[in-house]
Model the fold of this input.
Amino acid sequence: MATKSLLQAIGEGLAEEMRSDESVMILGEDVGRAGGVFRVTQGLQDEFGGGRVLDAPLAESLIVGAAIGLSVNGMRPVAEIQFGDFITPAFDQIVNEAARFHYRSNGAWSCPITIRAPYGAVHGGGLYHSQSIEAWFCNTPGLKVVAPTYPADAKGMLKSAIRDPNPVLFLEHKRTYRLLKEDVPDEDYEVPIGEARVHRIGDDITVVSYGFMLHTVLEVAEGLSEAHGVEAEVVEPRTLYPLDRETILRSAKKTGKFLVVVEANLTGSVAGEISAVVAREAFEWLDAPVMRLGAPDVPAAPFARPMMDAFVPDAAKIERAMLELARY
Amino acid sequence: MDVKDARARHEVLGLTGEDLLRMHYSMLLARRVDERSWILNRQGKAPFVISCQGQEAAQVGAVYGMRPGYDYLYPYYRDLAMTLFLGQSPREQLLSVMGKREDPNSGGRQMPGHFSARELNIVTASAPVGVQYPQATGTALAFKVRGEDGVVLVCGGEASTSGGDWHEAMNFAGIHDLPVVFLVQNNAYAISVPEKAQVAGSIAGRAQGYGFPGVEVDGMDVLAVYEAARGRSSGRGGGGPTLIEAKTYRITAHSSDDDDRRYREREEIEAWRLKDPIPRFERYLEEIGVLDAEAREEVDARIRAEVAEASRSAEEAPPPEPEDALGPVYAGR
Ligand SMILES: Cc1ncc(C[n+]2csc(CCOP(=O)(O)OP(=O)(O)O)c2C)c(N)n1
Ligand SMILES: [Mg+2]
Done:
């Protein structure tokens, strides 16, 4: 077992799946010789050739549409969208096509594709290299949306996504790519889609979060424990659609105090759906109103640092929200 | 064709009399099933009809060389003559028209014309115009990656060439020399919008810019379309991409929800009816002695009886159960 960053773990997951299954291939912009703008696919074209690691023309609808057509004809494609912000031209192919193949054909066809997309605010990203795009896709039955945060989870979930007979949107927060390294198993393993993970056990409040926010939440949780004796239970959905309601509800019922922290614009976010589930199903266990923290409802994180920092919930805001909930 | 070639047109194309009769049968069958759909619509038994009438020659000509279950078809909503040719039955089509549980395309989930047949490699179609083109290139790419000789036929109307998906797919097919035939059935209208407000220049001519051949053919002539598609959609000696623009005409309104008197003259339709691809082909068949008037009547009577029986049987088939609406959303591993 070696320690790997999220980025390395994903790259390794891709390589292993391509080695063990000839039908797995990659298409996307700059994925070939360059190894992707973030270097996730580095070295893969050398190993597997230009036919299986294909530099696609700059046309996102084509990239996803061709992935669908490849899957129809026996392949297991992984399509890379260079930045989540540019997934919009492929929206039709993802939402109206891939996600509906199975239902609309009464189960005759399925669409085993994986769409990888880096998302989230990063310094210097500006309005179009920063967006949290998950909410656009989390009311699309037929599609699975996953957003792992830790390297070992990401590798195992990527394998699950590639082997899944349904379309999976695989979101990678750019700021978590190289943030930390952890032990990542060398042997073949899967982390199932649809299962949340409890990162920290606590009795006082529950905080659900994912992506870069999750790292901040975990840091703040340690601080609150030391400074105030507040023990937060921290839950990562890992799969954003369909949600693991059971794990989330179990924690909400245990602590009776519930907060969701996301980097996305708050209104209409995944946090809203999680909150609705808890508000309804855990009502009788709750000792405080369900709370949410997210980005303000402005289009996206701006380019200049002071404005970006105002957009993304930071440790101070998260701590305030967690304390407010704990003291409620 | 060589001017001195004394052989009949179909002989030059390597087609036998039997081939021609099969083509004729498929075209006429599609017409009769289509007509039956309109009757069912007027009887209140079919909420929506979208028609193939006028386009049967373009469809049968293009699909004729395909190997069902090996090559892939991405049809659009008017391609009834193709799906019938490849092996769907009139009863199956009418089950779909009446939204019955046994509808093989979708189990009553989709409007008629949204074809699907896994065993025939007819890929599930939807309503957004143009989405099928990128998908078709991916399917062709899979053949190429594996070194197989399969071919993909993808179809749409002339308006489907206005959006990005068509151009993205044409470009990709050209870059990778993919085994895909783009068949554009240019029927002069997109609902009410005439071709002149839809198409700049020539559709067929655009292929040149993408680096592969494009041909414009008389879409009312089944042999002309077959000739253009032959050796391409058959996979035998085809190779790279081809674009075929078949000039045809939509004889009916856009759909059962459309009143085309708002935007086109009756005289125009009447003039096109004289070019109806089915009687036209029948004249050829009579000329070459393959099908005389009597035999034609006999074929038609057989088809009418088959369609009437299919309709009766489809009508009796049960509707879906309400809870059928709840799945299947995800495929199991
Ligand atoms: C993306 C999209 N926009 C609009 C429509 C509504 N619509 C359905 S068919 C059609 C006209 C299509 O014309 P054409 O491609 O020429 O095919 P035809 O119906 O003439 O065979 C329109 C506007 C649609 N189905 N999809
Ligand atoms: Mg048209």
